[in-house]
Specification:
8 helices, five-stranded antiparallel beta sheet, alpha+beta, about 170 residues
Length: about 170
């Protein structure tokens, strides 16, 4: 008994000092069996009101024993990545072990990179790649529904001449 209690205390101490929020939930009763310090401090409201499992495990496939996916927390305006696995607890009951990582900065950076990849720096409008993608979708929809559409092409003659003689800065203006 002392050995088991000591092992549990050591494990709890290790899990309290990991950079992610971790919890263990009884699958049958939905009861929270373990929550590390990070989870208790970041999600105290969700623990109190019992919404922790519905927030993080609502999209968990029923036939999957482990995996990961992203979750957006509307109230906090933050993105989290959830890693989960189903295991047997020390008393052999089925539990869900979940590790939660805050990936908000990663998602913000990813959105910024995508914005830069799909828009023109000068105008902020979609670039050629997005235009071609959207045009293809519109053409497919037009063919599918049997409707008609119009495409207007606008070109500025000799614009290269303006850039060459007055400079790109003036051309941008």
């Amino acid at each position: 008994r002392n050995s088991l209690a000591g092992s549990y205390a050591a494990l709890e101490s290790m899990l309290d000092n990991i950079g992610s929020s971790i919890y263990v939930r009884d699958i049958e009763t939905d009861g929270l069996l373990f929550a590390n310090r990070s989870l208790r401090s970041r999600f105290s409201k969700e623990i109190r009101d019992g919404s922790l499992s519905s927030l993080f495990e609502a999209n968990m496939p029923s036939n999957s024993d482990s995996g990961n996916f992203e979750v957006y927390h509307d109230e906090k305006g933050r993105w989290y990545e959830l890693y989960y696995t189903h295991i047997k607890w020390v008393d052999y009951r089925p539990v869900s072990l979940c590790a939660i990582y805050d990936i908000t900065e990663k998602k913000t950076y990813q959105d910024k990179i995508e914005h830069q990849a799909y828009t023109d720096f000068l105008t902020g409008l979609y670039n050629r790649m997005c235009f071609e993608r959207d045009l293809k979708k519109q053409l497919e929809e037009t063919v599918k529904t049997g409707t008609k559409g119009v495409l207007m092409y606008l070109d500025l003659d000799d614009f290269k001449h303006i850039n060459d003689t007055l400079g790109h800065q003036y051309g941008d203006i």
